[in-house]
Hints:
By secondary structure, chain A is an alpha/beta fold. The first copy, chain A, is built from 7 helices and 7 strands, in the order αββαβαββααββαα.
Amino acid sequence: xxxxxxxxxxxxxxxxxxxxxxxxxxxxxxxxxxxxxxxxxxxxxxxxxxxxxxxxxxxxxxxxxxxxxxxxxxxxxxxxxxxxxxxxxxxxxxxxxxxxxxxxxxxxxxxxxxxxxxxxxxxxxxxxxxxxxxxxxxxxxxxxxxxxxxxxxxxxxxxxxxxxxxxxxxxxxxxxxxxxxxxxxxxxxxxxxxxxxxxxxxxxxxxxxxxxxxxxxxxxxxxxxxxxxxxxxxxxxxxxxxxxxxxxxxxxxxxxxxxxxxxxxxxxxx
Amino acid sequence: xxxxxxxxxxxxxxxxxxxxxxxxxxxxxxxxxxxxxxxxxxxxxxxxxxxxxxxxxxxxxxxxxxxxxxxxxxxxxxxxxxxxxxxxxxxxxxxxxxxxxxxxxxxxxxxxxxxxxxxxxxxxxxxxxxxxxxxxxxxxxxxxxxxxxxxxxxxxxxxxxxxxxxxxxxxxxxxxxxxxxxxxxxxxxxxxxxxxxxxxxxxxxxxxxxxxxxxxxxxxxxxxxxxxxxxxxxxxxxxxxxxxxxxxxxxxxxxxxxxxxxxxxxxxxx
Lengths: 270, 270
């Protein structure tokens, strides 16, 4: 097996990998999958009964949480840092995405603690309902579409609170190059990746407004041991790694706020 | 405080930072140091009584553990991978240096599993007594000095079983450049550091024989939360990170075994 051998099934939205209707799909842990496989080897005619009480509950009203520090030069220009508030409730949702939530809040605290008055408005958005339909993300984008604000950049942390290795950038070529020109500022902190790539689910809908999208890229080794499982608990988060990710986010937004990014159409491929 | 706030004092060899004889030094946890500091703020005339029963026990006989696969071209040329067997016994010594021990063993397993017959002799050395005088390291070097073997390279893992970020190399300039020429082979695995630097304590005494010394360089954020404390336990080791470090070690030794390193005097500065 490639990754963790444990008893934690990874929940989430499970759909059948087979294009055959009527075949149910459930998540099993790696250990349980091995057990099932061994049973099947012993008895190819094994019959298995699985009871599952998953269901979709009625819709309820919930909210994104938004905070901002007004820009002192361009208050209608937004530099956004965000993450998602909701989680699968088997564990604490500590890495997915409690870590991103506190890092986004920490970005604002860092700006205030250092006395940085952003030129653009620094807005922290904690998106609701990422895991189950991205309603908060779509609603935020809908409001942006109606308004008169311009988003200079949107930055998301949703890959866990692990040691930062850089950023994944979904932006125009000149914007990507501008960010990559800051590589020497990040390398001393062992962040070597300012690569084109997937940014984050919640900020994704802002692509239609040509907003440069950036995701915090962290050490990816441990995430899928915890993701969507009962093991995604607070004790799995290392404070120092969490802090470094927040500091990296604040640093990048500081640079973008101060020096700007070239304006251009964003590449839509992810 | 910079790093972990916890109740774990970091043991080890504690000596006074003050050049005044008769002032005892003990290790205190960060939380306990804060508590002491707060007490002192309340009462600058605070008197504190600390009882400490540390002592040096008599010497006992112990051993390095050595295993090897004979080289099929140059059996008296050694490529060495190693770590240290002993640990401070407050915890398990899981990261310091249980991780390095199993990674060194894993290097040999990887060579065998892949059917690699090394040209030079692959030798795994598990050094005894690193923490308390490096007797195993000095004894190994003493025997090397008496023998007729040549060490092509010595590689140590003693920085914890964390996600590998590269290697720290203490070697001659041409040797360093030869290793750095392999950077493109390591970068896809997020290993960007093939830098000059400190290699490892146990292989250090081999410098006098101009052996190129290399240390596995891993993500350094978590190590000093566990190092020499009761928190350095097995559950803090992530299997995937541990495996990646061992794979990195095996890969580098494979390259050195296959392509060799230029022969030159090793730089002695670390």
